[in-house]
Amino acid sequence: MRAFTTLLLRDIKLAARSGGGAALALSFFALVATLVPLGVGPDLRLLARMAGGVLWVAAVLAALLSLDRLFQGDFEDGSLDLIALSPLPLELTALAKIAAHWLSTGLPLALLSPLLALLFNLAPPATLILFVSLLIGTPAVSAVGAIGASLTLSLKRGGLILPLIILPLLAPVVIFGAGAVALSLDGLGAGNALGLLAAFAFAAMLLSPFAAAASVRLNLGG
Amino acid sequence: MNFLFRYANPHHFMRLSGAVLPFTAIAALLCLGAGFYLGFSAPPDYQQGRTVLLMFIHVPAATMAMGVYGALAFCSLLSLVWRHPLSDTAARAAAPLGALFTALGLVTGSLWGKPMWGTYWVWDARLTSFLLLLFVYIGYMALWNAIEDEVRAARAAAILALVGAVNIPIIKFSVEWWNTLHQGESIVSGKLAPVFLAPLLLMMAGYAFLFVSLWMIRIRTAILERRARNLMQAGAR
């Protein structure tokens, strides 16, 4: 357990200090959310209608930005070999890295979302649903993304392949997440969608450490 | 399982597939020929007119698109559990064929959509999940091509294929939850008239034989390619 928390804290510190983590993803998120109204026009009713989908897609893309470094930095400087040698099972290592990625990317994205929803004129109840859905759903993005990150670990240009293999698998997250917001806008209960989103996120967090650990192992030559 | 292991040996596989290939190829030609003939001689549908012909091309392509992914995932499982190089070769050889069937299903689906729904593309559940399936295939092939080391590439691709196999039903469910406009299946439930059912089943069999034939040709080519490369390397030394 100590090894797990140590690794978790180390990764969060690295994300916070290397300048490539949370701040970058948040700026990207805000920038995409700013560009969309410029593209589709300033009609507030239209923007309110689109807010859930646009912010969800932007959040997924923003979370992807830092994913390719999830294992790669440690792989390149050799610390991944040492971590793999430690008594901590590789599956738990993967889980720690997923948790660190979510705490340094997904959580800040969810916290920023109400502010951006304000710019999109999203009604307060729907904004709450958006916030909750991002809170529930972004762990799934980190978890599924970790599979992609570990598969493309040895690639120099892994950042290009990663979105290609991960984004189709993340379709359910976007559908349920943005769907919850749309349902709440229509005055229907969003509980159904949020429940499905939570189910997907739990399944992803449960299963993806195994897939990620298997592909880290193969890249370490084991 | 013993049967599988026996033919996982490339030498045995070459012998068996060489013997089977002419028959599956002829079966494919016969089924497709008969299917096309019966399809063209079937009366026009009372609602859809002649465009119902597209069904005989579209529905089997869509079925194969899913079926090929099943074959690919099964090969990947064999490769991860028993480490047979031949199942890697088989999985890799199946991917472009599956992508092609998916693309064919999408193109014919949208051509069918124009007279039926009035637009080439509607975001209905099945079209959308097939578009996502196409991207899954593309990602799988891209990952395989991106990793230089062949053994690593094969295992990484196999892991991705299994992750996809778990996720594709979820994607399908989520997309259906999102929107549905496509008509439900009408083969098993017996809503399809026999004039249409016979050519459709023939076409499905034809597509399946075609896939098996092309798949075997691709695996055989890959094996021969590897042998040629080994010979050239041995000659260079």
Description:
The complex is a heterodimer of chains A (222) and B (237). Chain A is an all-alpha fold. Chain A has one domain (2-219). Chain A is built from ten helices and no strands. Chain A has helices spanning 2-17, 22-40, 44-65, 69-76, 79-85, 90-119, 124-151, 158-166, 171-185, 191-219. In chain A, helix 6 crosses helix 10. Chain A is elongated and about 55 Å long. The two termini of chain A are 24 Å apart. Chain B has 237 residues and is mostly helical. Chain B has one domain (22-228). In chain B, 82% of the residues lie in helices and 0% in strands. Chain B contains seven helices and no strands. In chain B, helix 4 (85-117) runs antiparallel to helix 7 (194-236). Chain B is globular, with a radius of gyration of 20 Å. The mean pLDDT of chain B is 84. Classes of the chains: A mainly alpha (222), B mainly alpha (237). At the A-B interface, helix 7, helix 8, helix 9 and helix 10 of A face helix 5 and helix 6 of B.
- Broad shape of chain A: elongated
Number of strands of chain B: 0
- Structural class, from helix and strand content of chain A? mainly alpha
- Average predicted local confidence, pLDDT of chain B: 84
Q: Mean pLDDT of chain A, rounded to whole units? A: 89
Q: What's the structural domain tally of chain A?
A: 1
Number of separate strands of chain A = 0
Strand content of the residues of chain A, in percent? Answer: under 5%
Which chain pair shows the most residues in contact? A-B, 29 and 30 residues
Number of domains of chain B: 1
Parts with pLDDT < 50 across at least 5 consecutive residues of chain B: none
The main pleated sheet of chain B reads as: none
Radius of gyration of chain B: 20 Å
| Sequence of secondary-structure elements of chain A | HHHHHHHHHH
For this entry, what is the oligomeric state of its chains? Answer: heterodimer
The low-pLDDT segments of chain A are none
Distance between the termini of chain B: 39 Å
Percent of residues of chain A in helical segments?
over 70%
